[in-house]
Specification:
Layout (H helix, E strand, L loop, with lengths): L1 E5 L3 H13 L3 E5 L4 H9 L4 E5 L4 H12 L9 E4 L3 H10 L4 E3 L4 H10 L11 H6 L3 H4 L7 E5 L5 H5 L7 E3 L8 E6 L2 H14 L4 E7 L6 H10 L2 E8 L4 E8 L4
Parallel strand pairs: 1-2, 1-3, 3-4, 4-5, 6-7, 6-8, 8-9
Antiparallel strand pairs: 9-11, 10-11
Helix pairs in contact: 9-10
Length: about 250
Amino acid sequence: MRLRVIHWKAPEAKPLLEDLRAAGYVVEYDERLHPEGLSAVRRSPPDAFVIDLSRLPSQGREVAIFLRGRKATRHIPIVFVGGEPEKVAAIRKVLPDAVYTLGTQVCSALREALARRPANPVVPVQMMARYAARTTAQKLGIGAGNTVALREPPPNYASVLGELPAGARLEETPGGVCDVTLWFVGDAAGCREALPAMRRLAARTKLWVLWRKGSEITQQFLRESAAAVGLVDYKICAVDRSWSGMLFARKKAV
């Protein structure tokens, strides 16, 4: 039988691959499930998917949700391997009919999964549909009771942000420490000049840099300019039809 293994770190995947091959399975593997790899999977689906959760469990979850969303792969058993208990429990709520196991028990878990292929598999809502349903506050990580600092906001910032969670408070002239900072940048030169000060700010707040779509500001410009002062991006979102946002943090080594 053919297996498709999804593991995000090749050296760590080696023992798992060896165990599966020693058990007689034909194993297909690469570190990333690229678009061309997904096309190949749809054209010639394996007998089962084995997805590692010890690294990047959220990505493993999204790959499984993607596979369940496609007719060609919907009924193929999914075996999740490893992972932190709390994160595994959260994924189990989304995909309750997958099989969950430790690495040392993967072969017996595979036999169980192949013996009871899901006749009516759970098909979770795809990531893009879930994302589209989120409010702007949810995209920006603004929670109930949070203080949100606004820097250089446009006149229509209230309509950009929409409804905020209960108790969330906006500060147009921020002075103290805030939970979230929204910095609306207008031009490249001003953005680059202010970034060193924003790096210091990022030590005590979630720092979002927001820019107008179609302006001279681009993802690449922000990423390179921020990296030059010791900031690294780790999240991006479409705030609304006019604004995009990128979340930054200080580099640990800086």
